[in-house]
Every structure is written in C-alpha cells, then in structure tokens.
Amino acid sequence: MAEDEVILLGFSASVFGIRPRIALEEKEVKYEYREELLVGNNKSPLLLPMNPIHKKIPVLIHNGKPICESLIEVEYIDEMWKDKALLLPSDPYERAQARFWADYIDKKLYDPAKKIHITKGDELEAAKRDLIEVLKMLEGTYFNFSIEAEGPKIVGWGNRCMQRDSVAKTLPDQRKILELPKLIRQRLGIE
Ligand SMILES: N[C@@H](CCC(=O)N[C@@H](CS)C(=O)NCC(=O)O)C(=O)O
C-alpha cells in the first residue's frame, strides 16, 4: 500500500501552527512541513485553495485532502493514527473537558496575548490585565502576577512539555520569536 502523503502548511511563530506539528510528532507520522511566509502577506499558491474559507495556517493536507483549524487537525490526527497513544483522553467527560479548555484558550488567551505585542498605552495595560486574569483562571489561583512565581502549575506543565521531543523539536527558537513582535511593532509604528 502506498505511504500516506502528509503535508503541513504552517508558520513557525504561530501557536496554532505548533499544535498539529506536536500532534504529528507525538504520533510519529512522517510529514512534510512547509513554512508559509505570513509576514508581508506572501502566502503560497497552495494555501488559498486548501483553506479558501479562512485562508489561514495551519492546514494539514492528508493524501491531497485539506483539514483546517488547529484543534480539528489535532483531533483528526488522533483519530487517524490510532496505533500510537491517544492525545486526548479516551473518557468522554475528560475529553469534553480537554476540548473546553482548548476552546477557552482560543477564545480568551489569544487576543490579549497578541495585543501585548501590537498595542501601547492604555490598550497595552488592559491587554496585560486580561492576560493575567486568563492565566490566573488556568492556574486556578489568585495573587499578584509574575508567571514563574504565580503560575507554577502552568510553568511546570510547560517544562514537562519541553521534555517531550515532539515539543522541544517543534517550538521555534525563542530569540527568533522575540524578534517577531519587535518587527510587528516597528511596522505598526509603535516603536
Ligand atoms: N482558529 C485558527 C487560527 C489560525 C490563525 O489565526 N492563523 C494565523 C497565524 S497565527 C494566520 O494564518 N494568519 C494569516 C492571515 O490571517 O491572513 C486555528 O486554530 O487554526
């Protein structure tokens, strides 16, 4: 039987793009990663026909068929490559809880985290407050904010994730990531 062809269109600085990459690595699926040049809006000719609705990465292309939206892709990977351990809990209630928190992160965390990079003044302060609230909610505790001191469970979870090859080899170089907001701020005239 011919081997599956798996292509992932991504952008290494994207938190959404990293999700299906980690899932593919965890499942040890062979795939071709193609970086999209999102800065400057230089999307490849493949991205638009593969994701005509949102025109966004990540797109997982399995034997020519596209799957869009990072969380849907993670679930697809989990269901498609069943020979490796499940990524989501098998218990329906636990599974629903995992989906709830992933959805919460998308709805509540992404916007303030993004705004921190692209706003200034009052808007920046409001974004910081919103982000702290979300992190406190995830942490399940309430105190003044410093992610190391005040979010030990989240930091501990992050450190445990970093010990997995799938995460360590997928996450982008931190120095490069820190350059990106600077570039965006310069383009927006904030710096
Ligand atoms: N809900 C989507 C969000 C994907 C998303 O926002 N992708 C951004 C990169 S972080 C993108 O492709 N932006 C390009 C654009 O908006 O034109 C998912 O989970 O996959």
From TrEMBL:
<dbReference type="GO" id="GO:0005829">
    <property type="term" value="C:cytosol"/>
</dbReference>
<dbReference type="GO" id="GO:0004364">
    <property type="term" value="F:glutathione transferase activity"/>
</dbReference>
<dbReference type="InterPro" id="IPR004045">
    <property type="entry name" value="Glutathione_S-Trfase_N"/>
</dbReference>
<protein>
    <recommendedName>
        <fullName>Glutathione S-transferase</fullName>
        <ecNumber>2.5.1.18</ecNumber>
    </recommendedName>
</protein>
<dbReference type="InterPro" id="IPR045073">
    <property type="entry name" value="Omega/Tau-like"/>
</dbReference>
<dbReference type="InterPro" id="IPR036249">
    <property type="entry name" value="Thioredoxin-like_sf"/>
</dbReference>
<keyword id="KW-0963">Cytoplasm</keyword>
<feature type="domain" description="GST N-terminal">
    <location>
        <begin position="4"/>
        <end position="85"/>
    </location>
</feature>
<dbReference type="InterPro" id="IPR040079">
    <property type="entry name" value="Glutathione_S-Trfase"/>
</dbReference>
<dbReference type="InterPro" id="IPR036282">
    <property type="entry name" value="Glutathione-S-Trfase_C_sf"/>
</dbReference>
<keyword id="KW-0808">Transferase</keyword>
<comment type="similarity">
    <text>Belongs to the GST superfamily.</text>
</comment>
<dbReference type="InterPro" id="IPR045074">
    <property type="entry name" value="GST_C_Tau"/>
</dbReference>
<dbReference type="GO" id="GO:0005737">
    <property type="term" value="C:cytoplasm"/>
</dbReference>
<dbReference type="Pfam" id="PF02798">
    <property type="entry name" value="GST_N"/>
</dbReference>
<comment type="function">
    <text>Is involved in the conjugation of reduced glutathione to a wide number of exogenous and endogenous hydrophobic electrophiles.</text>
</comment>
<dbReference type="GO" id="GO:0006749">
    <property type="term" value="P:glutathione metabolic process"/>
</dbReference>
